[in-house]
Amino acid sequence: MLLTSGQISMAISSSVVFMFTFLLFLSGYVLQQQTVRSLQAVIKPQPIVVPPPSPVLAKHFGTPPGHSFYDKYLASNRPKGGWAKVAYVQLVREHLHVCNALMLFAVLDDQESMAQRVIMYPKEWDASTSAALDPQIETSRRLLRNAAKRYKVMLQPVEPMLKAGEQSTFPLAGLLSLTAYNRVVHLVPSGLVLDTSGLDHLFTLPMDSDMLGISAGTVDGAASPSVMLLKPSKDAFQTTMESLSSAKYDEDDFLSRMPLLPDLPEDQIHIVAKTSGLRLEDDSFNATAFLDSTSYVHVSDPETLGPEFDAPKESLASIIPNRLEPKRAWQEVYERYREMRMDVCGLDLEPVPKPSKEKLAQSQQIP
């Protein structure tokens, strides 16, 4: 069957239309794929370039605090033996101070201090049976477990080192027995760590003696250490323990014999301050600068039982600084302590204990 000229013309036209339609579809498809690839390139996140680790810190746990103070001092002055040979050690002898130790290590962990962390506590706390478990012991055990789990704290139960009659004692001199470390720092409770950089610097200080205290002073001028720096050794431990009389052991007497250094301001950073000393500050004092530049605040006022107790406001009137800025710093420290005690330990402030009948009778006697 022969095709007519019209049919041939129709076939040719259809072929041309089909070819151009196919080419148009192909060009659109190619353009679409290019657009999709361009959008993917824009949306896809760029890879993050991680800087190589510092060879100085590669063998030690933790990372540098990242402060200018660290960059200036600790980068060139590593502790002898490295960070694995120095430690913050808290000797807790009372249940009241367990939470404070936890608070200190919480800040050290948060600010990534590279020193080891140790809590020494009476071994008898572990010996108590669950059937007759004292609520305080139960709370202390819970807090100690949290310290080990959350803040990488090593727990070390200790036996009494001295006995005065029926009373067992755990003297601070026992810190000299920790010969696994070249340097040990003990923070006298109760207190707040605000910046670990200055405290870490203590591990690099030269020491001519086995013990060194850093004091911020007090209102009455009697200096006592708020921070203790020790160089543990077998000889130092034995010599110190032999000099302590178990029958007349007095911790205050032991601390009074410790060589003291004043606060060490370096690069506008102060190692230690004491809340009782805020009453001596003048109008040039700046609360914000104080809180930003102090490493450790020893929360201690002679007229109070401690920051752990919910003292009535009227009883605090005589110890709060009168000047505006020192007063603001004092109130901020106590408020931070209260908040951190709740956040870290889940504990509210303790009620102030009522005076015993004997003390009450003595106060009511007419002179």
Strand content: 5-15%
Distance separating the two termini: 144 Å
Low-confidence stretches: 48-73, 357-367
Note the main sheet: 7 strands, mixed
Chain-averaged pLDDT: 80
Helix fraction, binned, reads 25-40%
Largest beta sheet: strand ordering: 3-2-1-6-9-8-10
Query: How would the global form be characterised?
Result: elongated
> Which series of helices and strands comes N to C?
HHEHEHHEEEEEHEEHHEEHEHHH
Count of DSSP H/I helices: 12
Class by SSE composition: alpha/beta
Radius of gyration: 33 Å
How many β-strand stretches?
12
Record the SSE blueprint.
Elements: H1 5-43, H2 68-74, E1 86-91, H3 98-110, E2 116-122, H4 124-127, H5 135-151, E3 154-158, E4 162-164, E5 167-169, E6 183-187, E7 191-193, H6 196-201, E8 211-215, E9 227-230, H7 234-243, H8 251-256, E10 260-262, E11 270-274, H9 287-293, E12 294-298, H10 313-316, H11 324-345, H12 357-364
Parallel strand pairs: 1-2, 1-6, 2-3, 8-10, 11-12
Antiparallel strand pairs: 4-5, 6-9, 7-12, 8-9
Structural overview:
With 367 residues, the protein is α/β, with parallel strands linked by helices. The chain contains 12 helices and 12 strands. The strands form 3 sheets. A 7-stranded mixed β-sheet has the order 3-2-1-6-9-8-10. Strands 7-12-11 form a 3-stranded mixed β-sheet. Helix 3 (98-110) runs parallel beside helix 5 (135-151). It is elongated.
